[in-house]
Design goal:
Layout (H helix, E strand, L loop, with lengths): L2 H24 L7 E3 L6 E3 H17 L4 E4 L13 E9 L1 H6 L5 E8 L2 E9 L4 E6 L4 E3 L2 E2 L13 E3 L9 H4 L2 H8 L2 E3 L4 H10 L4 E7 L1 H12 L4 E3 L12 E6 L1 H16 L1
Parallel strand pairs: 3-4, 10-11, 10-12
Antiparallel strand pairs: 1-2, 4-5, 5-6, 6-7, 7-8, 8-9, 12-14, 13-14
Bound molecules: D-MYO-inositol-1-phosphate (IPD) and calcium ion (3 copies).
One calcium ion (CA) binds next to loops.
C-alpha cells in the first residue's frame, strides 16, 4: 500500500470512526432493542448492527474493491486476507454498553495482504481515540504513546484476565493460572478486549490474556500494540491467524516468554 493512499485511508477511517462514535454518544440514553446470540449473556443491540451497517455502506461505496470482516453479519465471507481488508467490531464491549453506558469501543483494523497497516480503537464515551499506522508510532488522541519499558518484571505487572480463568479448564486444574495471578502485582477485567489492547499499548496494563477472541476483537489492537513495542501471540506463544478465533496474549515483550514458558506451556502439558 503506498504511503499517500494509506494516509488518505487513515484519515477517512478516523473520520468514520469518530462520526459513528458521535452518533452512539448522542443516542446513548435512547431505548435499546437488545437480543441474545449464542447464550443469554451474548448480547447484541440495534446500535451494534446500525454501526456496522454504517461502516459497511461507507466502505463499499467508497472502496468497492475492499473487503470487510465484522461481527454482526454485514461483512464478507473471506477465505484469505489478500487485498485490503477492514476488520471491524462496531461495539466491542456490548455488555458494558448495555449495562454501564460506557467502557466500550469501536475497533477498526485495516490490513493489506495480511499485514496490519492501520489500527483505530475509539473509547466512545471518553472520546479517546487510540490510533496507529504501521511504522509510525501510536497515539492517544494527538498525544504520542511512549514505547513500553524495556525492563519489566512479572512481579510488578498488572495483567488483564477474564472470568474464564475461574471456570473449569485444564490450566485451572493444573493451578497454573492461580500461580500466575499470585505472581503478578494485580489483575484486571475491563470487558472490552479492544480497550484492554489499548491499555497495554499505553503501558497502563502490562499484558492482557484471554481465550477465544475473534479477529474483530484484536485486529486494531495488534497494530496499536506493535507500535509501542508490545507483542501479540496466542496464549501459548504461537502466531495468530486473523481468519479464525484464538486465544490471545498481548504484552510487554519483557514478560512474554516468562508467561508462555513458565505458566501457559507448563499448564498445557
Ligand atoms: C467481547 C468483549 C469481551 C471479551 C469477549 C468479546 P463484544 O466483545 O471484548 O471483553 O471478553 O470475548 O466477545 O461481544 O462485546 O464485541
Ligand atoms: Ca458480541
Ligand atoms: Ca468484540
Ligand atoms: Ca462487538
Amino acid at each position: 500500500m503506498n504511503e499517500t493512499f494509506r494516509e488518505k485511508l487513515y484519515q477517512q477511517a478516523k473520520e468514520w470512526v469518530v462520526e459513528a462514535g458521535t452518533t452512539i454518544r448522542e443516542k446513548i440514553n435512547d431505548p435499546l432493542t437488545i437480543s441474545t446470540k449464542s447464550d443469554r449473556n451474548d448480547l447484541v443491540t440495534t446500535m451494534d448492527k446500525d454501526t456496522e451497517y454504517f461502516f459497511m455502506t461507507n466502505i463499499k461505496r467508497t472502496y468497492p474493491d475492499h473487503f470487510i470482516i465484522s461481527e454482526e453479519g454485514y461483512g464478507d465471507e473471506l477465505q484469505s486476507l489478500g487485498g485490503t481488508v477492514w476488520i471491524i467490531d462496531p461495539i466491542d464491549g456490548t455488555m458494558n454498553f448495555v449495562h454501564q453506558k460506557r467502557n466500550f469501543a469501536i475497533s477498526v483494523g485495516i490490513y493489506q495482504d495480511g499485514i496490519g497497516e492501520i489500527g483505530l480503537i475509539y473509547d466512545v464515551m471518553a472520546d479517546e481515540l487510540y490510533s496507529a499506522k504501521r511504522g509510525e508510532g501510536a497515539f492517544k488522541n494527538n498525544m504520542a504513546l511512549s514505547p513500553l519499558p524495556e525492563q519489566k518484571s512479572l512481579y510488578d505487572s498488572i495483567l488483564g484476565l477474564n472470568h474464564f480463568w475461574l471456570c473449569e479448564n485444564r490450566l485451572v486444574e493444573e493451578k497454573v493460572i492461580q500461580e500466575l495471578v499470585r505472581t503478578v502485582r494485580g489483575s484486571r477485567t475491563f470487558g472490552s478486549a479492544a480497550l484492554e489492547f489499548a491499555y497495554v499499548a499505553e503501558g497502563i496494563m502490562d499484558g492482557y490474556m484471554t481465550m477465544g477472541l475473534a479477529p474483530w476483537d484484536i485486529a486494531a489492537g495488534i497494530v496499536i500494540v506493535n507500535e509501542t513495542r508490545g507483542r501479540t501471540t496466542d496464549a501459548f506463544g504461537g502466531s495468530l491467524n486473523l481468519l479464525q478465533k484464538s486465544s490471545v496474549l498481548t504484552c510487554n515483550p519483557a514478560i512474554q516468554e516468562q508467561i508462555v514458558n513458565e505458566y501457559m506451556i507448563k499448564g498445557r502439558k
